[in-house]
């Protein structure tokens, strides 16, 4: 029997892709399928739901990472073993600055490493930053698509409901951090250590000083601006991959 990776349950006989698009939520995988050609279901094990499809002649895997750095780290490692070289997260986030609206796109230029998974790999002095070429491609493509976008530092964390969340958010907001999520820092650090190219696009589902649970519920129901933001980040990731593949082929 041909072997598959232990958690994501994908083997090299199932894909030749070099690009992976990584939502946190397994449900978002289905939303990406709409924008790809020749879509095939791969697997769904634990939090890892995967499909493959094509943009022109570029094969892409779309796989959910689940929530947090620990499951994201496993996803990154096992995708690396399949020969994936380029990882683009399409996540959701809470804004930490006013003026950033629901459904706006945040492109992460770096992440505060308040997650445990990346700390398990390497000292906190190691920077959580995306691949510079992918970052430029995302900003350029976001302009071309006329998206409302922001680029800057974000914060990745492991906690949602501690007694100090408001205080912590206020602190990082005061330092100019744009938004918070739970996977970007682990993606950047672990992917970077493995020589992979990484980037992270986030859809704003909670405004600054908005109601966290209400924002998350909006996302679950695919309502209003959050659903539009999800569509925006999917189109941005796929168009940036198209442009990147064309550039590398030249
Ligand atoms: O919507 P996803 O991509 O899961 O991203 C965000 O949503 C989850 C929390 O609600 C965390 O995973 C956070 O990073
Ligand atoms: O506020 C939020 C919303 C989504 N994800 C987060 O990590 N924080």
Describe this structure in words.
- The protein has about 250 residues and is an alpha/beta fold.
- The chain has one domain: Rossmann fold.
- It is built from 8 helices and 9 strands.
- A 5-stranded mixed beta barrel has the order 5-8-7-6-9, surrounded by 5 helices.
- α4 crosses α8 (about 225-250).
- The termini are far apart.
- The model has no long low-confidence stretch (mean pLDDT about 95).
Q: Count the strands?
A: 9
Mean pLDDT across every amino acid position: 95
Computed over alpha carbons, the radius of gyration is: 17 Å
CATH homology group = Nucleoside phosphorylase domain
Strand order of the largest sheet: 5-8-7-6-9
Uncertain regions spanning at least 5 consecutive residues? none
Reading the helices and strands in chain order gives EHEEEHEEHHEHEHEHH
Compute the separation of the termini in Å.
38 Å
Enzyme class: transferase
Organism: Paenibacillus profundus
Pfam families: PNP_UDP_1
Family: Belongs to the PNP/UDP phosphorylase family.
